[in-house]
Predict the structure of GPI inositol-deacylase.
Amino acid sequence: MRKQSAGSSVDGDASPVETPHVNLSRLGATESTSSAQPANKLDRRRSADCRRSSLSASRRPSSVNWRPLESRNGNGTVEKPLPLDPTPPSSPLALILTSSRGLDSKGMEKTPERPNGRRPQSSSPWVISLLTLLASMIGIGFLLAVIHSSTTRQLDPKGCRMSYMRPSYAKLNEFDTEHTRLASKYSLYLYREQGIDHDTKVRGVPILFIPGNAGSYKQVRPIAAEAANYFHDALQHDEAAINAGVRNLDFFTVDFNEDITAFHGQTLLDQAEYLNEAIRYILSLYLDPRVSERDPDLPDPTSVIVLGHSMGGIVARTMLVMPNYQTNSINTIITMSAPHARPPVSFDGQIVQTYKDVNDYWRRAYSQQWANDNPLWHVTLVSIAGGGLDTVVPSDYASVESFVPDTHGFTVFTSTIPSVWTSMDHQAILWCDQFRKVIAHAIYDVVDVYRAAQTKPRAERMRVFKKWFLTGMEAVVEKTAPRSNPTTLLTIDDNSNSIIAEGGRLILRTLGTAGRVRAHLMPIPPSGSPGMKRFTLLTDAKLDGPGETGKLDVMFCSVIPSQPSQYWAAFSSQMDLSKGNTGSTRLACGTAAPDVVSLPASTPSTRFPFYLDGEREITPFSYLEYGVDDIGEHQFVAVVEKTTTPTQGFVVAEFSDYAQSHQTRYISLRRLLAFGLKFSLPAERPMVSEIKVPSLQSSLLAYDLRISNQACDGKQELFSPMVRQYLAEPYESKYFVNVREVTVSLHGVAPYVPPPVTRKSDGDGLRFQFWADPTCNSSIDVELTVDVMGSLGKLYMRYRTVFAAFPLFVVALVLRNQFRVYDATGLFIPFSEGLDLSLRRSIPLMLASLTILTLYTTDTTAGNATLWHWTNGTSSFMDFHQNDLLIGTQDPLFLFLIPLIGIVCVGVCTVLNYLALVLTHLLGTLAALATFRPGWTRNEDRRRSTPAAFCSPSPRRRMITTAVLLLLVSTAVPYQFAYLTACLVQLATTVRAHKIASELRSASNLNLYNYAHSILVLMLWILPINLPTFVVWVHNLAVHWLTPFTSHHNVLSVMPFIVLVETLSTGKMIPRVGSRLRHVTNLLLFCIAVYAAVYGVSFAYTLHYLANLFAFWLAVIHSTSDSWTLEGLSHLYAGDSEDRKRGKEP
């Protein structure tokens, strides 16, 4: 029977020496032969066929002893180890470790004694405990529930209509390497619409389109085609627009060869550098008479409007902080589905730092007290998010409120934009027909070729963008109609009954029933009247503007005293409804049409706010809403029926008290989860009611809203009930027409998103607006409940990046338990057994500690958890990184997600562990089939033709290979390439370890296999962090960009992994650490676990460096198994010749 110390390893030596009943004092590996003859023969064959990995390690006893262990013979008696070689240790670390051998039993753990003297046996790596199985099933079950919910529940309807275009692209070849070093990689194009643009000369306003991550320059075509057609068909014939400075738009677009920007910071910086030079070149084109047909009386352009999609929006903002940025060359930026708040993934340290630098620059600029000190004073930024249908980038990340004040920019969702009213996915936002029309019209509304900047002043641009992109009901939208000059002279009979009594409601079920033009006058209550009254009007007819002759007109009127007839001639239109009577009153009126709010039509036949291709176009409702203070300078609201024949259409207008129409429901989320919220809209209610629920702010919860049918006493409803849910910040509105049941989801306070610069006092909470027919005179019951299953799907988009960090928390704790057991007993237990030990103590304690400490240190007033922060934030300083840690939210209600995510990651780690086992066994089986020899082959021939399990190259060859790889990393390839190579080598090592462990089932072989497998699992979890950069590098090679990769060339970032993997490839088991230095391993893994849980999501790239540090420590432990002397090092180059001289061993 083989006698072996508790920490021995058969594979720790290149060739074990047969010495019966003698305990060899070698590093953690001593063997003697007694009855295990077949094993020794196998070892002899291996040593005869395979070159030795190190002569000094295989022929001389080591001077290092990690732990003086006592070997046991077959009878259970204890043999004393032989005296150690008196040669002093050859390295300082070995000297430290050797000093531990004098410790007695009080200073170190003893190997547990067994009655028969046998060592504890390691279980099979396939075995899984009931606790691990149960935890894994719960975790995987919850993960599947989240995925199922995200694909089946709380889904926004798709409402985009297709767009069509006739594109052509002119490449600007003159923009070459003389202008920028990146011209050989990127290209600049000018878009031209076939049939409209007949040449490539520039004559309008320059627009630059920036594609996003892996985007194409051709993605500009939907918006550019709409702009070309709109100018060709309408604007060029509009004299007022031409006089206002409107010209056609010249769309330039950039071919980035589908660069992967989201994963690589240097690529983002390269694109920003290139685009700044491109803008300089574009502006120069308008000065060149060969390519420009611009009116010479117009000023030369000095700035470009930038349109960015996805990561292109981030590149646009980065351009303004680059050294080659030309001052004031950009003053208008419109982004679509761009993740402004934080990077989509944090796998690259440079992109995380770039985000921080850019956002900090914008914050500092807008925090300046004086405009002259703000380099971004003239810049406006509008971020448009797609909403719930965007599954590529969370729309929460599109928020710009954390670095841009509302005077210079805002965030809006496509479901908010009038006439769009639908969510969009990441690509549809480029081609959606109704959305591209709004974008093109808004851009034309801000251009002004009479200015060198080619745009209107900043304040005017912001008013235009708010008019086109917001609903018109937001507090920041200016009401222009009440302050405009009167354009209509309205004359009415003093004896007419057209004046509505104060407090009355105007109801028109059909227009034109009087057979003549008729005006309805509603007296305006004086400003400061009790009740904070407001005026609201809803109709399904289009309101006429000045000079239009339609069905309906709404005006604000004031009585004018008797004036000469010359004064009346100043009005552009006159409307005499006095019937020739002498007793008449003249009113000076201005139209309310500029302030009309478009609402989706809500009828019994409508299902969605939008209409699709092939469906009948639905005319939207017209809605007006004013506070009394807004229209207080006037005396009447005049509703004029212009049609003289009965026409289908309705009008509802009224003055209502604010207290009657606005309610606030204070309810905690816990109570809402348990009981829901129920309330009723009374029968005597205004046409529009608004309910605010301050506790509804989180993006992680979804709700169900149910509305009861209202009885209308047999009458037909004027319109079906309609609901608008909205947030005041960011601007997100959703409309629900013909409503009975509504699924409510929002993009409010989201995980990992920084807080806004200034929070509005009335901006907290979700609000619901209810439009219901007030003539029905019946109450409406409303019930709001939390959709628990629907809320699970909201976790997918917000927390999918945790799988890049939190599983490492589990793996680190498992490795910690594996090493603790190994150092104590000499057995390196399988990963599944280590996971079971962790689930019994380490993981629950860590998750509970993180949850309790976070809850305890959460400052609900300041809104930050002070325990986990890098800075010592004060109450006067807003911490924009307060949501970077753990689960990314400060709401105590969601702290349960910490243990929940932990359990899910336990299940994911279990699955990966068994996938690695399956892969290892499958590759082992394939290798066995590849080396299969027929049964009639002689044993001697079979032995000669079968290579040993760990037949590794000579040390010299390994050192040369490693040196070449590190040289490539330092010059040409990123270290991620070397890491991927190390993963493949480690996989092959694990396969070979499994092969020898299955052929010779000894404790030492199982130790090596379990150890190699656990290191493989660790490296596999680090691999996703490194793969994106590797993909970027491969992509650069694919587009023939041969310029050396300008980042990720630090050889120290991968050298420990390479050394560790090379050491394991020789079949050496890591020695046991018996001194206090074993706590270093424990502490390293503990720190990795804590960091992965707390900082891993926001700083995932640092997890590679922490794992690399751990690999360095393991390589140091491995290195102490050899005595490094000058003589030993000389054998690295003489090893091959000495092996040949020595010949085969018997």
